[in-house]
Amino acid sequence: MTLKQWVIHLIKLLFPPQVLLPDIVGIDIGLTVAAIGIVLFLTKTKRWGWLWREWLTTVDHKKIGIMYLIAALIMLFRGGVDALMIRTQLIGPHGHFMGAQQYDEVFTTHGTVMIFFMAMPMVFALFNVAVPLMIGARDVAFPRLNAISFWLFAIGAILLNISFSVGGSPSAGWMSYPPYSELAFNPGPGENYFLLSLQVAGIGTIATGINFLVTVLRMRAPGMTLTKIPIFAWSALITSTLILFAFPPLTVALGLTMLDRLFGASFFTIAHQGMPMMYVNLFWIFGHPEVYILVMPAFGVFSEVVPTFSRKALFGYEAMVISLLAISFLSYGTWVHHFFEMGAGPAVNVFFGLSTMLIAIPTGVKMFNWIFTMWGGRIRLTVPMLWQLAFIPTFVVGGATGVMLAAVPGDYQYHNSYFLIAHFHNVIIGGTVFGLLSGVYYWWPKMFGWKLNERQGRWAVVFFAVGFWVTFLPQYLLGFEGMTRRMATYPSGLGWTALNFWSTIGAYIMAVGFIIMVYNIIWSRIHPDWDTTGDPWDGRTLEWSLPSPAPEYNFARIPVVHARDEWWEMKREGRTDEVKISPDTVKPIHMPRNTPMPVMLALAFFVGAVGMVFSWYWLAIVGGLGVVAVLAYGSFADYREMEIDPKRILNIEAKLGRVES
After folding, report:
1. Does the structure show a pLDDT above 80 at 184?
2. CA distance 284 to 128
3. What is the pLDDT of residue 94?
4. What 8-state DSSP symbol labels residue 221?
5. What Rg do the C-alpha atoms of the chain give, in angstroms?
6. Are 267 and 274 in contact (CB under 8 A)?
7. Which residues of 223-240 are buried (b: 16+ CB within 10 A; e: fewer)?
8. Tens digits of per-residue pLDDT, 130-181?
9. For labelling alongside 549, which of 82, 283, 296, 408 has CA 20 to 30 A away?
10. Tell me: the pLDDT tens digits for 271-308?
11. Name one GO biological process term (predicted).
């Protein structure tokens, strides 16, 4: 092959027709202009060094949490645009907004982005921001591993998102079932992007699970027994345990699919005696616990928000903990309800139908806990509380329709219809997204030192919640009317047109709610309502005993815990001066140093993954050697902790008014 032929082949490989559509080219131009603008701004303001020192190489869990949050909001925008494209295509019969191939790509990336690259990082953002502070720790158990986790997630997100510009997007659906994902039916690099992005990000996710499991079990302040851990920290502990057992089956399934595609294996290829059903089992052994990995942190958020804004202790703390543990256990015995129709037999279907109904019991317990906590309380309708009030009816409907789907004869009718789509979004948006956005508003002052505007926040809740119901209530009816999912278009005369029209209108109303959220962030930053107390909500747990934002070492003196809601009890008993330090008792604090190793490791993974995506095995080997080299460098380099001098600590605490006179 001559050089000219090789260049032509490379251009065709990197820029096939599906990435040269006018809308994609327009997006590419916009992103390029934005990137140039950011580079020029950083250069003009001489902030490259600041960016490197303060953010790219940081191991501070609070900054890592903020980076997770920024990434999650960007991915919420990306996944939301995909959703609007889907609904625009389906607003009426015989839609021509997108072709069938582009439609397949958009609904694939919509699901993948929202589950793995929006919801998961928002969960980890709140874990990083809140958990170490509320258990009285100075950091997570493994700070450098925490940074590695973030940067591997970031590389996974970048891999998936460059696919629509270079090479082509995946199109086999976010579940990537064979044979749709097999090479014979899905040639090109698109599906390879999907497989590699999730595997790279999945390594970071498993590492995060290990990190927060150890953090909650081993880093708690003195006196904080398991019966005194805040519920959000319990949700982090249980979620981390679920991650450790749920993500390995997904990793195996994706890895075997990659072997089928790149190396001619036949694990799931029917023509060579492969078993596609094995992939389906592996995926849903991960997939249903993943639902609870996403929703249990939301349960934890509400278990902090409701007592704070009801000015009451959480009703039924022990029942709440037991219900969370029960859900984590039962979630591994429900996965077959995702494929009742695939011939497992009546005995298997009955078992998994009953187990699915059973899991609704501990889920319902928490609803009563929150309602009884509010009962008789002095409720303040702040934005975090409004998200909770929007959540309760939404999630109840999602849970009830889940029980309907658990009834095997009914599921034969509902499955693969828009009824299932509406149920899934009822749970994930009405549960996970509402809960996580409540947590974002709740802990925002602790992250940034200023509050988001309440009036604008209320409008965002109203538009988002109303838009949600206008979007998905018609989809339940569409399911009853027989409309199946993954349809790129539909004929007229089936009674679906009006319902699809209103569903699309609802999606645009939700988009207005998101725009108001973004405007709220920008406006509140320009006109900041500074939190000078560290406790803007009159909170109950230890993070509200710290300034906003917390200093790099979190606690100048590790607190000793005597009660479940320690900060609330300190305020009630008039012991708030205990947070102040005496000059003669300050000791040096040892904290981990920043390190470039996580960024270097992520770049090596990126090089190797790109090599695998395009079957450039020489590049994959270079990336693999880079991973080994960075790990070796990290193992032998001298990463001594830095010591924060007592004088510096006293200076910081004095400025915060936390030194005894």
Report:
1. yes
2. 28
3. 93
4. P
5. 25
6. yes
7. ebeeebbbbbbbbbbbbb
8. 999 999 999 999 999 999 999 999 999 999 999 999 999 999 999 999 999 9
9. 296
10. 888 899 999 999 999 999 999 999 999 999 999 999 99
11. respiratory electron transport chain
More confident residue, 424 or 660: 424
Check residue 519 and give its pLDDT: 97
Burial of 465 (0-12, 13-18, 19+ CB in 10 A): buried
Query: For residue 339, what pLDDT is reported?
Result: 87
Cα–Cα distance between 481 and 417 in angstroms, integer?
Answer: 9
Nearest by Cα to 175 from 288, 79, 99: 288
Q: What is the pLDDT of residues 20-39, one digit of tens each?
A: 888 888 888 988 999 999 99
Overall average pLDDT of the 645-653 stretch: 89
96 in Cβ contact with 180 (< 8 Å): no
Q: Which two tokens stand for residue 452?
A: 């988001």
pLDDT at position 44: 92
Could you identify the residue written with the tokens 């994930």?
A: 428
Structure tokens at 151: 């940067």
Strand segments (E) across 528-630: 529-530, 589-591
Pairing mode of beta strands 642-644, 589-591 = antiparallel
- Which among 521, 379, 515 is positioned nearest to 451, based on CA atoms? 521
Return the pLDDT at 297: 95
Q: Hey, what are 607's tokens?
A: 């090089």
Here the tokens at position 6 are: 């090789």
Is there a cis peptide before residue 179, judged by omega within 30 degrees of 0?
A: yes
- H/E element, 57: none
Cα→Cα distances 281→183, 265, 359, 483, Å: 21, 19, 20, 26
Taking the C-alpha atoms of residue 43 and residue 330, their distance in angstroms, rounded to an integer, is: 53
Q: Where are the alpha helices (DSSP H) in 221-359?
A: 231-263, 276-310, 317-330, 346-358
Closest CA to 613 of 247, 270, 283, 169: 169
Q: Is the pLDDT of residue 446 over 90?
A: yes
What pLDDT, on a 0 to 100 scale, did the predictor assign at position 295? 94
DSSP string, 341-375: GGS--HHHHHHHHHHHHHTHHHHHHHHHHHHHHHT
